[in-house]
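Following up on my earlier thread - several people asked me to post the actual chain instead of describing it. Fair enough. Here it is, all 100 residues.
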Amino acid sequence: MTGGNVLGKPLEFWVALAAGALIVIERNRARPFVGRVFIAAISAGIGYSQTPEVALWTGRSETLVVMVLTAFGYMLLDIVAAVLADREFIKSIIRERLGK
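Reply from S.P.:
Thanks for posting it. Predicted structure:
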């Protein structure tokens, strides 16, 4: 059963977005509450903004994609930031690509 539309999306979409944000809040429970809320808001923004393209690319529903992107989007950004912060790792990749 489908609920009504809110801002052009079905109710299930917003429930999935909220569920993903709650997963983020729970996963970061060691952090202060305000920090968890900011991380959840960032994750929700990633989920909301990237869902149409990722759903189209994967052939999955926007409801599924928004929950997955929201729940794991910030974690992926965290991993990318950690890799980019490792200068030696970046240098080794560049050396490997340049053949030096």
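The helical segments are 11-27, 33-58, 62-85, 87-98. That should answer part of your original question.
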